[in-house]
Amino acid sequence: MSNLTVIVLAAGGGTRMKSKTMKVLHRVGGRSMVGHVLAAAQSVAPTSVVAVVGHQREQVGPHVLALVPEAVLAVQETQEGTGHAVRVAVEALGGEVSGTVVVVTADTPLLRGDSLAAFVAEHEAAERAVSILSGEVEDPFGYGRIVRDAEGDVLAIVEQKEADHDQREIREINSGILAFDGAFLTEALPRIGNDNVKGEYYLTDAVGLARDAGLTVGAHCLADVKQTEGANDRAQLAALGKEINRRILHHWMTEVGVTIMDPDSTWIEDDVVLSRDVTILPNTQLLGATVVGEDTVIGPDVTLEDCEVGAGARVVRTHGQLAVVGDGADVGPWAYLRPGTRLGAGGKIGTFVETKNSEIGAGAKVPHLSYVGDAEIGEGTNIGAGTIFANYDGTAKHRTVVGRHAKTGSNNTFVAPVTIGDGAGTGGGTVVREDVPPGALAVSAGPQRNLEGWAGRRRPGTAQADAAAAASPDGPAASDD
Ligand code: UD1
Ligand code: MG
Fold first, then answer.
1. 220 lies in the same domain as 294
2. Which domain holds residue 269?
3. Which ligand approaches the C-alpha of residue 24 most closely?
4. Picking from 79-83, 409-413, 423-427, 475-479, which range would have the lowest pLDDT averaged per residue?
């Protein structure tokens, strides 16, 4: 196997983000910017990954290690330019590198793994000393320009501040993503100086050094130039986020067959998995590791994070996190699925219902105005409107178990820990404090007392009393005494 090192440059300050959070840690499309780059880097199967960290390295270092535990962190104490950053990385590897070395910047979240792999394959096949991933942009201001000779061979990269009038007209730019022959890079780095306008060590000077030594240099111009775009401030971050989202939605619509009614108000993160004939209605966000099965309709107004929704389900105006919704199940409108909710196939969590850490069996229904916490509800059971599973006694949480095919009345309170048996029932307004045996009907409200003529006696002269009098079998006069 070939020996391949990826060096990720992530030491810069990123002051234009105006943030406590380091630039490359800002999230876009469901991952940090550096997370996207590290994911793309995996596509070239690197033998080692080195991240150069400097500014806020106490934030960046652990984040990189969480994503790529085997990564090497190279600390660049002072940011003296990209050439200096790569030198620090090579020093962290023992002072020399062999094989292929790929340098990427940490703020290009659209970079795709297959583009990087194609770039590296071309670099290795052409046996070049240096390859540049370039792109042709409308406005090249600020970038290093790719200078070619009459034959089209690359002569040099000239930075914005060093470029003469003609060079500034060049629209082919250095993306900042470069591939090197490791042996060449090892001997070239110490020869890069900082005698330039910015007083920095420019990695891009390696191109001129390779040419001077008669080695091959080439540029691979990426047609999809957006993949090389970076974000320096939050406006650019939002624009890149929109572009990432547009690409993700396009993939699901064209490659898999997902209907997205309003792409402008639909946000789907990178790790979400959808199936054929899923329909997504406006204002829907599918986040994290959410998975949705075939023929399911989601939306409008749904946010699901790390949720699993089965096939043929329906989820309307719902907020869900770490919840599982079974095949053909029905959720919402206005449901709140908190972590640990598991709704079985064909079940229902209806309107104004909040659920947490609860297993609701196949075909079981909690249709209206209820809180279900720390519960187990058996298959085919129906929970009456306005039921509270009182799971918290002020100190500890307790479980409620409701058996199979039970039918509980409206406005119940189940005071946990308590068990309601299979096929049992409860009357309206029951407060269940003790277990209900299978098949029993529990009622806790006392017998009803009617105080006849109460409205007329205690609320005389009101609309209530008048209505009561009018309805009296003895006529309006009956309640006048
Ligand atoms: C660099 C390139 C330029 C290219 C542009 C693409 C050089 C000299 N120039 O310019 O040709 O068109 O990127 O965006 O390489 N960094 C460090 N340590 C440092 C300096 C930089 O880690 O000491 C990191 C930064 O965090 C950033 C990347 O390297 O991720 C690029 O640095 P930056 O200063 O933005 O370089 P540019 O001037 O944009
Ligand atoms: Mg830059």
1. no
2. 257-442
3. 1
4. 475-479
One domain, residues 307 and 427: yes
Q: Does residue 248 fall inside a structural domain? A: no
Residue 326, ligand 1, Cβ within 6 A: no
- The DSSP-derived string for 254-302 is III--EES-GGGEEE-TT-B--TT-EE-SSEEEETT-EE-TT-EE-SSE
Question: How many C-beta atoms lie closer than 10 Å to residue 78's C-beta?
Answer: 8
The minimum-distance atom of ligand 1 relative to the CA of 175 is 6
How far apart are alpha carbons 32 and 137 in whole angstroms?
25
Residues 471 and 437 occupy one common structural domain: no
What CATH code is carried by the domain that includes residue 75?
A: 3.90.550.10
Q: Do residues 14 and 55 make contact, with C-beta atoms less than 8 angstroms apart?
A: yes
Query: Residue 297 maps to which CATH number?
Result: 2.160.10.10
R_g of the chain, CA atoms, integer Å: 33
CA pair distance 442, 201, nearest whole angstrom: 81
Domain count, the chain: 3
* Prediction pTM value: 0.90
**pLDDT for 481:** 47
Q: 270 CA to middle of ligand 2, Å?
A: 25
| Distances, alpha carbon 479 to alpha carbons 450, 451, 463, in Å | 16, 13, 13
Query: Which of 207, 228, 249 delimits the end of a domain?
Result: 228
Query: What is the arithmetic mean of pLDDT over 396-412?
Result: 98
**146 CB within 6 A, ligand 1:** no
Domain-located, residue 332: yes
* Residue 234 maps to a domain: no
Instruction: Pick the ligand that lies closest to the CA of residue 134.
Output: 1
Closest ligand 1 atom to Cα of 205: 8
CA of 383 from ligand 2 middle (Å) equals 59
**pLDDT of res. 475:** 67
Same domain, 345 and 476: no
**Which tens digit of pLDDT belongs to each residue from 290-342?**
999 999 999 999 999 999 999 999 999 999 999 999 999 999 999 999 999 99
Residues 216-241 have pLDDT tens digits of 999 999 999 999 988 989 999 999 99
Which among 7, 15, 105, 198 is the best mutation to test ligand 1's pocket, defined by most ligand atoms within 8 Å of the CB? 105
pLDDT bucket at 480, cuts 50 / 70 / 90:
very low
Q: What is the rounded distance in angstroms from the CA atom of residue 158 to the CA atom of residue 402?
A: 73
Ligand 1 within 6 A of 85 CB? yes
Question: What atom of ligand 1 comes closest to residue 11's alpha carbon?
Answer: 22
- Annotation marks residue 368 as catalytic: yes
Catalytic hit among 26, 84, 250, 368: 368
Q: Is the pLDDT of residue 36 over 60?
A: yes
Ligand 1 centre to CA of 12 (Å) is: 8
Q: Are residues 356 and 406 in the same domain?
A: yes
Task: Encode pLDDT of 255-275 as tens digits.
Answer: 999 999 999 999 999 999 999
Residue that the structure tokens 């810069």 belong to: 12
Q: Give yes or no: residues 337 and 466 share one domain.
A: no
* CB of 230 sitting under 6 A from ligand 1: yes
